[in-house]
Write a structure and sequence with these properties.
two-stranded antiparallel ribbon; 2 domains; elongated; 374 residues; 63% helix; alpha+beta; Heat Shock Protein 90; disordered C terminus
Amino acid sequence: MRRRAARTALFVAVLCLAVAALLAAIDGGGLGTKLVYAFAIGIACTVYTSLARLAAAGASDLWRRRRGLPAAEAGFGAGWTGVLPALLAAMLAGPPTGLAIADRLTGHASPSLLEMRWASTRLTIALAVIGTVASIVVLSLQERLAAARLAAEAAERQAAQSRLRLLQSQLEPHMLFNTLANLRVLIGLDAAAAQSMLDRLIAFLRATLGASQAPQHALAREFAWLDDYLALMRVRMGERLHYELDLPPELAALPVPPLLLQPLVENAVRHGLEPQLAPGRVSVCAARAGDALVLTVRDSGVGFAPGVPGVPGVPGVPGASAAGGGGGFGLAQVRERLSTIYGPDAGLSLEPAAGGGTLATLHLPLARSVRGSA
């Protein structure tokens, strides 16, 4: 609204300066007096134009509401229903009002605009009409361009949200199928453990069914999901899997996309701990580093395959080895979701952890997360 008012004021000022300069060049009078008359008439025409368009928009919205129709989406008074009343109001009321104000300011007595025998009268009316038509056309085009820009931005946001929902809907079955495959193997090995794992899976799915459809949730909820998932995996792996979750209380309420960490944890278990016979540990930590939220997933598993080059991720983000699952479905989804939500402000990196294993690090813009939760 302020930007549109500033554009209108600037255009009217430029137009009035041009009219004053033209009048001074035609009759050789003083430029100062011409500026007073040009600005008085220009401002009066602008005020009557805005009032007429606002009245037309209000009448149109009232008419639509009485018939159960939604209000018009375009700017106030857009289209001919707003332009024609504005043009008539500006041409009929703007010049006389502006002329009277300028006469009061300068002490002159201008002839009536109804006396067409005067050349100055005809010139004043002609310039007022030309200026009013030009201003209405230009400002209407600006409003239509602004409305089209807003519609394009809204469509882009909607497309991004649809893309995120699609990515998340693909990710959840991926995790579920992997869990069911593990459960199928466990049934033939340990029926009691499979029953326990099935009970935990039911509880996990019940807890995540509704919340997973939201675009974001609290970081505490994400860690609770990880706790459920790792408990499922521990039923199957027993003492081969140990885990810890470290979430500082001051970060618990920060919003993050759902199931953002789960693919990283799943990769740590499947590609890090499962291939080795010795017990292993998965550690998930959250920390704040300046204006960024840093989330890390570390495992003590087999780590990167020797001599295997990294698989590239999003631009500027290190890749992961084949053993680390860098080319797998889950990590590709994480990278795509980060790119869609945060653009270049977020990143995922995978690297060998000190002492063995793999370290996955997520950097999220903290300010963006806080704004998204408002």
